[in-house]
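Supplementary Note 3. Input sequence used for the single-chain structure prediction.
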Amino acid sequence: MADSIERHFYLCPPTYYQVEYAINDWMDLNNKVDHALAEAQWQELYALYQSLGVQVTLLEPLPGIPELVFPGDSIFLYGQHAVMSKFRHAERDPEVEPKAAWFGERGFTLHRLPEGMHFEGNAELIRWNDRFFGGHGVRSDAEAYPYLSKLLNIEILPLRLKPPFFHLDVLVLPLDSETVAFVPEAFDRESCELIQAEVPNAIPVGLEEARQLGCNSMVVGDTVIMSTPRAPKFAAALEASGFKTIQLDLTEFYKSGGGVKCLTLEQYAPA
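The predicted structure, written as discrete structure tokens, is reproduced below.
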């Protein structure tokens, strides 16, 4: 993984975050968000990134758009290119244009997907070394990856997800140049074989701990920032492989199916 000083993260405060609809298996309209607790949990993550030396830019929360707190879902950043997402669920469409406008005003080149193509941004396209894993089959279309590969001149390894998981960032976690954690039961056979063929050291994560969003983590240097303390087997495997773990408790964001990685938009530097 790149050194933290070279990386740039974007976070969006949870000012208007709440569960207003249910479009995945984690969301329940009766499971109300504790706003004070959500703010405290988010602030802990923000402070942690700062203490680790990561450059963090804050995005503006907007009323009526509750999932802006998960900033990577609506856009993908590569250098000064910003690819606008096309969501599978119309409930999330309002996130796209304000996010694109913000980056466009700051000099990014904006790209729209071809008509009819779905792709859910940073949540589905995850860098490992000089290549990317691309998730499809639930929210994003496999056809997005040949298009994005040509547009951005990047190599993408496509992986087909199985429900109830809907984004790749809860199932794949690049750890270093040779090591990737992944959830075997959440992919089809061909995708599992692809990971095992390409990755020298693949660490399996169990389905139960994946449901707790154990794999929805961020790596800074040799530190893995985890979304939950309820993935002890995965944490032990990480520590046995030489990584340090910081296990946050992001219960309020779990109510929407989100954790550390979902809360973080990374601007990938071109290879």
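The first strand starts at residue 8 and ends at 11. The helical segments are 35-51, 96-104, 144-152, 189-198, 207-211, 232-240, 251-254.
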